[in-house]
């Protein structure tokens, strides 16, 4: 059962991760290309679980684009993991809100379960060592200066 959380938060909404090791994440995107979190070691990765029907998810997506743009050229990636929706619905969403990062398909929602994404949106900041450093349930302004400063602190030097 998934719930939708309403209410934006700043960096103070990101809490240190204490729920164990980072689960595997290997999924295909809309074009059929496989993305594997393990291959992104050395980078900070924002993993975001979302759905098109989730209003807070839709609201935070543009701020994720802004965060990615602000870190252009830095070792930072975003993987947006859609929960079990038909590809046509996701494509219609992307026509309205284009994203500058891969949208992965968690068709059976097994990855969401492994990552304990029980609320949408659910976000995880993975450090360059491949370990989850922070998590947040609910929407957040990813382009806020507090969030950007936190991300920059964990970027490799």
Main structural class? alpha/beta
The value of Rg in angstroms is 14 Å
The poorly predicted ranges are 1-10
CATH T-level topology of one domain: Glutaredoxin
> CATH homologous superfamily of one domain, by name?
Glutaredoxin
Give your account of this protein's structure:
This protein has 157 residues and is an alpha/beta fold. The protein has a domain of 108 residues: Glutaredoxin, CATH 3.40.30. A six-stranded mixed β-sheet has the order 2-10-9-5-6-7. A two-stranded parallel ribbon has the order 1-8. The N terminus is likely disordered.
Topology:
Elements lengths: L2 E2 L10 E2 L9 E3 L5 E3 L7 E7 L4 H16 L5 E8 L3 H10 L6 E4 L3 H5 L4 E2 L1 E5 L5 E6 L7 H10 L3
Parallel strand pairs: 1-8, 5-6, 6-7
Antiparallel strand pairs: 2-10, 3-4, 5-9, 9-10
Task: Label this structure with key terms.
157 residues; alpha/beta; Glutaredoxin; six-stranded mixed β-sheet
In short:
By secondary structure, the chain is α/β, with parallel strands linked by helices. 26% of the residues lie in helices and 27% in strands.
């Amino acid at each position: 059962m998934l719930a939708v959380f309403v209410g934006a938060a700043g960096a103070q909404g990101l809490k240190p991760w204490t729920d164990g090791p980072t689960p595997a994440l290997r999924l295909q995107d809309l074009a059929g290309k496989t993305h594997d979190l393990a291959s992104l070691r050395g980078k900070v990765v924002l993993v975001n679980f979302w759905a098109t029907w989730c209003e807070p998810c839709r609201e935070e997506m543009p701020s994720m684009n802004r965060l990615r743009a602000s870190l252009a050229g830095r070792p930072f990636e975003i993987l947006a993991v859609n929960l079990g929706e038909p590809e046509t619905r996701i494509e219609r969403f992307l026509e309205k809100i284009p994203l500058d990062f891969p949208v992965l398909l968690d068709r059976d929602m097994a990855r969401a379960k492994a990552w304990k994404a029980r609320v949408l949106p659910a976000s995880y900041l993975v450090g360059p060592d491949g370990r989850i450093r922070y998590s947040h349930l609910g929407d957040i302004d990813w382009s806020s200066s507090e969030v950007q400063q936190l991300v920059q602190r964990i970027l490799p030097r």
